[in-house]
Amino acid sequence: MENRTKHLFLNGLYLSAALLMPVGAMAADDDRPLIEPDVTPVPVDESLIDTENFEVGAFVGFLTIEDFESSLVYGGKLTYHLSESFFFEAGVGFAEAGETSFEKLAGNVEVLTEDERDYTYYNINLGYNVLPGEAFLTENYAFNTNFYLIAGAGATDFAGDTRFTVNAGAGYQVLLTDSVAVHLGVRQHFYRIDVLGSEKTSINTEVSSGLSVFF
């Protein structure tokens, strides 16, 4: 009988306290989680954030000079990244033209002098990263990659004249670190030429690979 009386008395005190408690306080107690996580904010070191937008690099490959055989080509590039998708690229390349089939068959006939066979191009291009992704070397090593399209215009010094040139192509970039990348690329160079007779559009294909550094 005594236990029952204590139970009724305690329930009465609880109900009285609940009626006297403000509604906002009860809602706040109900919304409070039973277990509060122990979260410690981690300070951010701004010096560790990668902010490099410029990229400088060198490349080497092969260039097929229409009517003048294939040649080793090499050069350099300077790139400015406008965003994660778009970038500007300024490039220069050097090669040396070979002999035409006519020169080989005719013997001592020379269509171009030695100086005129020097092939130099300059261009400014706009690139677009189409497919950013990752390349996995092993289960523990992955590298960021970009497949990009690029096109632009410039000039080509060849055969004793400077020729307006349009180029277009594609490339594949693998970032080895935050500041070093490897490139594989294919370009087509278009310009007008009339060295062997009537004027025509010369289409020269370039395949190259290179290494670049961000700064």
From TrEMBL:
Domain of life, per lineage: Bacteria
InterPro entries, per database record: Beta-barrel_OMP, OMP/PagP_B-barrel, OMP_myx_plus_Proteobacteria
Entries under Gene3D superfamilies matching the protein: 2.40.160.20
UniProt domain Outer membrane protein beta-barrel: residue ranges: 54-191
Signal peptide: 1-27
Keyword Methyltransferase (UniProt): no
Keyword Signal belongs to the record: yes
Keyword annotations from UniProtKB, A to Z: Ligase, Signal
GO MF annotation: an example: ligase activity
Protein name: Glutamate--cysteine ligase
